Fold these 4 entries.
Entry 1:
Amino acid sequence: MPISQKQIDELKAQHGDTLIGVVVGIDDTFIFKRPSRADFDRWYDSDRKVAAARELTQACLVYPDRDSYIATLDKMPGVLMCNSGFLDAVVNSAGFQQGSVTLKKL
């Protein structure tokens, strides 16, 4: 399910410039927005890591629809938690990546 530039522009107009694209396989594109602090906290504080990861990424999904997202997870469940997968894309957009913060001695 490739996405057109027109669709990307419409999503940016609706959700802002903080969208992240993840391509699965050859051309299955998924677009996520940055998580809210409440959604991020719910994921981070959860003991149910896989279910919480699925809930967080679903809350941030803007393209395609939820059914396509679930169908992809049914076919390739590892894409949720793998390096550079759905969860990494979403939490890294919230600053959860190495290098987001620089410590300085004062």
Note: The first helix runs from residue 5 to 15.
Entry 2:
Amino acid sequence: MKLGTRVTAKNQLVRRYNNADRNNILVSWGPPKYRNKTIKGIYIGWRTYANGNIHYNYEDGKTFLANEHIKVALIVESLRTRPIPVLYSEMEEAE
């Protein structure tokens, strides 16, 4: 897909934290639980996001270990908002 193309997407990605254990926190990217809205905007680029674990050790501090990398498209709705990350599989060209 070319940069500057008008697109629509089903869901944005949000970061989730699972704090089941204080010493091992799971970090993942996924769709929001409650707000599912269609996003209309302009495709401006891509980023690589990582899912993984944050390990806490008293001596070393916090360490992030990535388990999986996701290629994410960035969409802008207006000039005054930050880019919204979406999955490429949920993005289509607008008519």
Note: The beta strands are 6-9, 14-21, 24-30, 39-57, 61-76, 84-87, 91-93.
Entry 3:
Amino acid sequence: MSPAHALSASVVAIVLVAVACGGAAAPTATKAPVAPAAAATATPARAPAATTAAASGKATGKVIIAVASEMLKNSLDPATSTGVPYVIQASLYEPFAFLHEGNYETPVLAASWKLAEDARSWTFQLRKGVKFHNGEDFDAQVMIKNMKRAKGIGSAAFHENVDGYETPDSHTLVLRVKKYDLALVSRLSWTTSIGMPAPARYIDEVGEDGIQKHPIGTGPYKFVSLDTAVGALTLEAWDEWGGYWGFKPTVKTVVRLSIPQETTRVAMLATGEADIAGLAAGPQLREVRGATVYSSSSTQVSWLEFFKQADPTSPYSDVRVRQALNYAVDKQTIIDKVLGGAGEPVAVPLASFQNGFPRDIKPYPYDPEKAKRLLAEAGFAGGFDGGTILTASAANKTLGEAIAPYLEAIGVRVQVQPIDAGTLYRRWNPPAHDLGKDSGMGFLGSNLPGDSAYRIESFFTKYGIWGYTVDPELDRVFDQTFQVRTAAERDLLMEKAARTTHEKAYKLFLWSPKAVFGWGPRIADWRHGGIESGNAPLIQSIRLK
């Protein structure tokens, strides 16, 4: 039986397009924004108009959100974070800027910015009148203190390039750089948490451990509690928030629950234990009752990571083997039969709207005969033991079981191995980062918007903390992005890097899936409000009926 026939026989087709259980009309899916080249200057954009409820008074009510991802106890301080959901960070804290509809960056804590003619310094006019949840003021010295203490995602490359700080006045920050960095605003806004400050005196009083236990920012929601034992994060609307860049919250209390089991999240929607739930492909979507299932375009690109590709003794170190596996899998059939058509095959790690995206490169076509020839050329005519496919959710287990027969059809023997989501998350992120001990592959990917350099840096270069690729050529290309002075030159380098990831097949590139959420009957709307935040709208845009 062919893999396609086996898939048809064993996998129930799940439709992830916007549908409404019980006959209610489904919301219109939002369109992913198109990001032009990074701007050298910025002026404040008009914030989306507040709803009548938001304008009429203080926030009220409570909403419970159930999601699959774990909320780690060390993830709430942006300076040390290695992967807290951006939707949470941007609710507690605020970045320099947001990606806002058609504009590349919309000012938030940075009211405006300008790149010097010699491209060796950036001048940021910081927003005046901003206060932290504890009443402390935000200014340039606070921002510098937070930048200097940053040691989380993307901080190493940032510190390496900083040549000094200047403060002509309390709300002007001049950041001098050793090398050109046209993507600096994106780095401070989206691709790292460096531009999300905590209050200066509070940092001195409680230290990093204290910030992790009780984070304080400038965002529309303030911290109430985090119970890591049950995965419950509770936030409360901050009535004093300025509302200068988006919707003011109308929901007083938001509880985020980490619920790895998809069926449990679906059941919570049905019983009213959850008002909103993150959903994914799988038979459980057919069981959603009393809720609206909403899907929208996302920034996510999914792939299978070859954990031992840098080990010269592993078959995955051979480019021909990696290419063979990319040819072996019929991605479109899996999208059609498992994802219900809610996705598109991908060729590179970048989202289609990101700068440097190579539009002429097509995804690897399904060609099992070519895959077998490549394996034979690599010395594996009889195939090999491909190890495990790690899956951390019911949805990914279903997808892994759909992929495995295609690999076995060309002689690569694999086993689908479920792994606890929290365990996978801890092993993927520093300080562990030890998935390279495993002989096979696992579902990884990226949903971060903003400048494309971050995905290349994080997953394909020596500066990254997440990927398992080692390629001096990609390191050199990434380094060259700090040597050019125009966005056009830089985008060409990003395109070159993306092409290299495709040609050398550093991942088994899969698809760009849609983001799927279930809304309970109490939810009137939960939209981006003009602010793009990866795969989820920001929580202050939740509206109750």
Note: The domain at 75-217 is CATH 3.90.76.10 (Dipeptide-binding Protein; domain 1).
Entry 4:
Amino acid sequence: METSHVRVLTLQIHKETSGLYLAEVLWDRTLVTDPERYASIAEAIHAEAGAVPEGFACFVEIRYQDLSSGTMSLENARLQAREVADRLVSLAREVYLTAGA
């Protein structure tokens, strides 16, 4: 029985300054797309999920401030970019408040 390998990419988003985010898509520590800067996390998710070459991968894990969205399809990441961004920001805020307590 043959098994197929499923690629799960990582979309890493780094906050550079207020309103400026650097996004890079990686597979096994190798860049899949060129790093780009965006005005928002949601914009980065939407654009980068759509920039992955067709057929290269179907799934992505989105990371922001060492937090993860979990694994999802590239299509869902693109379509749900705002919700995913809001969830990651909310988690980051919760971690910040917990660490400061």
Note: The chain has a mean pLDDT of 93.
